[in-house]
Structure formats: structure tokens, C-alpha cells
Amino acid sequence: MPLSRFVKKSLCNLSVNARCQTVAIMMKQVTGCHPGGLLLVCLTLAVVFMIGVWQDPATHKLITPSPVSVHPLYPSRVPLLDLPGFTYIINNDVCSADVFIIVIIHTHPANRMERDLMRQHIPEEDLRDLGMRRVFLLARAEWEDQELYHKTSQWSINEENLMHHDIIQGNFKEHYHNLTYKHIMGLQWATHYCPHTKFIIKMDDDIAVDLYQFRDKLRTRFWGRKNLILGLMQIEAKPVRNKASKWYVSEKEYPEKYYAPFMSGWAYAMTMDAASAIVAESIKWPYFWIDDVHVTGTLAEKVGVKREGLNRFYTLHVDHLHCCVELPNNADYFCDFLVGPSEGDPDVLGKVWDHARSCYINPCQRRPPEISVSKTCVRAKLPPLAPLGKGHGEIVKVYGPFL
Ligand SMILES: *[C@@H]1O[C@H](CO)[C@@H](O)[C@H](O)[C@H]1NC(C)=O
Questions:
Q1: Please, which residues have CB within 8 angstroms of residue 214's CB and are 6 or more apart in sequence?
Q2: Which of 4, 70, 180, 185 has its CA 20 to 30 A from that of 105?
Q3: Protein residue closest via CA to atom 4 of ligand 1
């Protein structure tokens, strides 16, 4: 049957029309498109629904509905590296023209507590006042090989999203070998849904990041910059060749002796143009699962994105963070660090964020160098990770919080 007759027939079909109208109204609300556009959308949808009920004359079998979707938040066939059929399970359009920094947070579906902690201590209203928005990046939880995690149902994630509207969830499996998918998904999402934003801040959900000070630093020192990533720069880091390690990387996966200089995934800032370039480049190279190495190292190097270390604003010691909020007169001073690890302790996250927020509400002073946290903090244990010892104390050879 020729297509035109089919379209006519189904356009006369009441139920298709009703659906079409509903969708058309939705589309109008979402896109504000004009009636001519609506007709086109209607026709497209009619075709889509029709294909869904199309019977193959040869086999008399129903052909499976085509997954073609024109919904702006749920488009089908978004390219994401080598993943066939990538789509969002949950998506939100959170950016408007007044957003300058979008914060994207890697989190496991089971980590509801961490997400709520951050929502509670860094309220969304603050972020709005500061021209920022926040979304959490999730994949799909499959529990059979993840006994360590509390089993969170998809239902409860949907509920969580209905409450907060801040979840972006991809349809690939949540797994630490899949974090590069998540990382590129986040950057791609940001370039697509927040195109007017100047910076992306990518962070992990267990890292204490003072977003108030981080934003100030970006505004005062890096605002007009392009093609740039800022963070805890890792230089001359080597792949782990010990097969017993969770982070073992074979010669086949990564033949070079050193990784390209990359930014720790704890927290970094990236300009929007750099994110676009990296996303475009990402489909040209084989998958490599250590996401911060691949995205902020290998791919950034390929497209010539500049990387600058803010290493002196990062601490590797949770005790430094404790000191920030415990040293005498701490309420008068900013913490010396923008970013530090929580080592799985939610209390320290809450305290650091509350302190950061109080310095936002009642501006604090810089700590004078003679009473800097690293000088006066007596809690600090010996570093868990030996610095490179090359005379530049800022540069440390670490990968993430795990090594
Ligand atoms: C990564 O996600 C894909 C798509 O869902 C899945 O097939 C694959 O098994 C996942 N990888 C791991 C290591 O679980």
C-alpha cells in the first residue's frame, strides 16, 4: 500500500488523531512551534504510530513498533561511543539562558543518601542564585554482579526524579567499566541541553567540592577562557600493570607507558567548547574504561584541549577538610581547598558544605599563609599516597580515590 494512502487513512483514525493532538499540545508547550510545524509533527507521529500497527502481508506478523521518537528529551538513536541504541531513561531540561555553570555528578543508582546529602547541604536555590544548575548522572542498575550495593529499584529512582527533577539516566548498565559511557553521556548531554553555559563542572558524589568558591575562581580567573580543562592534574601517571588490582590495565588496552596528562575525576571544570570537541572526537577512538584518563587525557590531547592544574586547591587528605571546619576561628576563614576526598564519610561532606555555604552567606577571609591548613593541621596523617618527589609538590601520582 502506498504510503500516502496509509497516512491519510491513519490521520482519519480517531485514536491516532487524539494521540497526535495530545502530543501536538505537548510539543507546543515544549517547543512553542507554530501550527505548520505541528502538522509536520502530526504527520510524522501518524507515520510512527502506523508503523507500529503495520502487518507484514507475507507473514501476517505484526512488525515491532519502530523506536523512532521525536520527543526532545527522549530522542532515539543518540550516538554514544559504540553503544547501539543509546537513549535516556530519565532526562530533564534544567538549563535556561541564565545558567553559566552546569554541575554534572557521577553517582551510582544506589547512592540516594549521597545525592540527598548534597541536595540538602547545597540547596538548589543557592545554585540558581549563582547561575548554576546540578544534575546527577546515572546508568541502569543491574544487580546480579553488584552484591555490594543496596538494591535500588528503578521505581524509586523515578520517584526521586519526580521530587527533584535533576536526574539524567542512560539505558546502559551501571558498572565501573562503563564509566566512560557515563562521562561522555554527561558532556554530550551538557553541550546539547545547556548550550549557553560557559563551564561544566564534573564531580563525583563522594567528593567534597566547595561549589561557591569554585565558581568564584572560575569567574575571577578563567571567565573568558576557551578550550580549557582545570583540575587536579595528573602528570606521568602510569597504567597499573598488576593483574590483582581492580585498576589493572593490560598492554592491549593501553600500550603506552604513561597516560597523557589528565584531570582527576574527583572534580574538574571544562569549557563548553572543549566538551563539544571532546564529544565529537570520542566516536573516533576505541573504548577505554578509565574515564578520566580517556576523556580528560587521551581525547583532550587528540583535540588539543589545554589542561591547567589547580592542584594547590585540592587536598588528598580528608584530615585537611576536618581541620578546615575545626581549627580555631574556622568560621572566619574560607577553607584553603576547593576539593578534597570524603573517604566515604558523609559527616565530613555535610560539614564542609555547611562551612562553604556559611562563607557564601557571610563572606569569609582568606586564611593567612602562616596559619594555612596544611601548616597548622595536626590531625593530618601521613599521606596515603607518596608524592612523586620531583620537587614539585603539587603534582601527585594518583588515580582517583582508589589506588
Ligand atoms: C556496559 O553496558 C553495556 C550496555 O548496557 C553492557 O552490555 C555491558 O555488559 C556493560 N559492561 C559491563 C562491564 O558490565
A1: 201, 267, 269, 338, 339
A2: 70
A3: 172
